[in-house]
Amino acid sequence: MICCKWSELMWERLRRFKALDPASRALFLRAWILLRLVSIGLTIRGFTGTQTALQKLLPAADRASQTEQEFSPVAIARTVRMVRAAARYGIGSPTCLEKSLTLWWLLERQHIPVALRIGTRMNNGVFEAHAWVERDGAVLDDQEDSYSRYAAFEGSFSALPPKTG
């Protein structure tokens, strides 16, 4: 009985995946794989090492030739939706940092400039942190206003400072 329910659920998910347009399917698969890689990277290399590795994989910035159409809200919304779906239907439960790094990288890969933000707070004596992605000051990946309960670091973590000496 449980096997049949699981099988039905998997077939339904497969039908929903196949119903997506090709661009959405590709984004979902990239997000699904990248969430795992980011999780492993954060465990092994930490935040800075993982973000540095991701930045090396970004295409050269040529935003001068970008048009506003390429920064369309539709492309941004599709990417946010596919990262959420990959997190929901993937293995484990990705953290906000893993999801935000994944979304940040996928949008930057499309030459859509965004900011990776990190905030902290004390909650009943416990230190907590939260990560999210913004575009022009608008939060993209938080369904609620949970980010507003955190004191964000000044600036964004979208680009690491160059190494000195």
Descriptive tags:
165 residues, alpha+beta, four-stranded antiparallel β-sheet, 14% strand
Q: Number of helical runs?
A: 4
Radius of gyration: 17 Å
Largest sheet at a glance?
4 strands, antiparallel
- Beta-strand proportion: 5-15%
Q: Could you spell the SSE succession in H and E letters?
A: HHHHEEEE
Which helices and strands, and how do they pair?
Blueprint: H1 2-19, H2 22-56, H3 73-89, H4 96-109, E1 115-123, E2 126-135, E3 138-139, E4 151-152
Helix pairs in contact: 2-3, 2-4, 3-4
Can you describe this structure in just a few lines?
It contains 4 helices and 4 strands. With 165 residues, the chain is an alpha+beta fold. Strands 3-2-1-4 form a 4-stranded antiparallel sheet, with helices on one face.
Could you walk me through the main structural features you see in this protein, from its secondary elements to its overall organization?
This protein has a 4-stranded antiparallel beta sheet, covered by helices on one side. The chain has helices at 2-19, 22-56, 73-89, 96-109, and strands spanning 115-123, 126-135, 138-139, 151-152. A hairpin with a 2-residue loop joins strand 1 (115-123) and strand 2. The chain has one domain (2-53, 69-152). It contains 4 helices and 4 strands; from the N terminus they run H-H-H-H-E-E-E-E. The chain is globular, with a radius of gyration of 17 Å.
